[in-house]
Amino acid sequence: MTKATGTNPTYVIDEISSQHFIDEHYFMYVIKGVVVLYDGSQYQELRSGQSCIARRNRLGRYYKTREDGELDKVILSLDTSFLKQFYNKHKIAVTKFECTETCIPVSKNELLDNYIGSLQRIYSHGKIREPFSNVKREELLLILLEQQPEFAGLLFDFGIPAKINLEEFMVRNYPFNVSIERFAFLTGRSISAFKRDFRQIFNETPSRWLVLKRLQEAYFLIDQKGLKPSDIYLDLGFETLSHFSFAFKKQFGITPTALSGKKTKME
């Protein structure tokens, strides 16, 4: 058990997802338990019977919490290839999708609940068994588009990210553990343009800036918020606790565990 850091460090969770870059659209429906999705700026909580679409080409992670010892959910990939086939088949009318959130809530409805019930015998280990996969995903899309037609503007927009404010994006998303190439892509730049623009803004290379920014936030969370190193290292983009501890001591001359103990004694 640990806590989720960020703007709301109150969620006690059983497991953190390893997914940081959302490569395709994903539909998520929570059957039992609680799933908390975080996109770098806000948390969205899904409980039993609630669902959402996680948006393609965004950064995010989710935290899973059991209720009464149980956790059950359905996650289906709505990949670009499948969506293009669906669009060409059904010729759906598309208008601009106005919502900018990473995790878009799906309205609760009886058709969707019945659909989830129909998956029980053919859904296992995160996938729909062949040969039902495309048929059942097509059924899901028909339900979603009937209930919320505006989803067409989200699902059938096959463009790539446009150029955006690099400084604003990086300050918000530095904790996510993705490659420099991903950061460049998500800000609408080639890798060379990203590195050039980054140095002009931050006067540092992306790799060095990311490590220092994450370590500074870690120091603040341990020293000022009293969080444990084991609670925060994954949220701040470090893959292992040992790597985090090594980098922290190299930067500050003290291990995160020692700083945490020092803080505890002072209190």
TrEMBL record:
Q: Does the keyword Transcription regulation apply?
A: yes
Q: Where is the HTH araC/xylS-type domain?
A: 164-262
> SUPFAM superfamilies, from UniProt?
Homeodomain-like, Regulatory protein AraC
Instruction: Write down the superkingdom of origin.
Output: Bacteria
Listed GO MF terms:
DNA-binding transcription factor activity; sequence-specific DNA binding
Which PANTHER family does the record match to this protein?
A: ARAC SUBFAMILY, HTH-TYPE TRANSCRIPTIONAL ACTIVATOR RHAS-RELATED
Q: What is this protein called?
A: AraC-type DNA-binding protein
What organism is listed for this UniProt entry? Chitinophaga rupis
